[in-house]
Model the fold of this input.
Amino acid sequence: MPAVKCSVANCEYWAKGNLCSAEEIMVEIDAHATVNLKEEFAGEYGQNTQHQDKAKTSSETCCLTFKPKTSEKK
Done:
């Protein structure tokens, strides 16, 4: 899997060096950002990944893998 850079430090999958440590990454177009996928966890998407969409720019996309950290390290 290629290195995925992420600056969202309050994500459960954020790792040192601004890297994403999730086993899978789910990226969706913004038009589907409000779809209820039950859990915000990459492994839970199953059949919801079967559709295909097109985006013209990166600003039209969003990462659905984001999961808030359960506890912040102090």
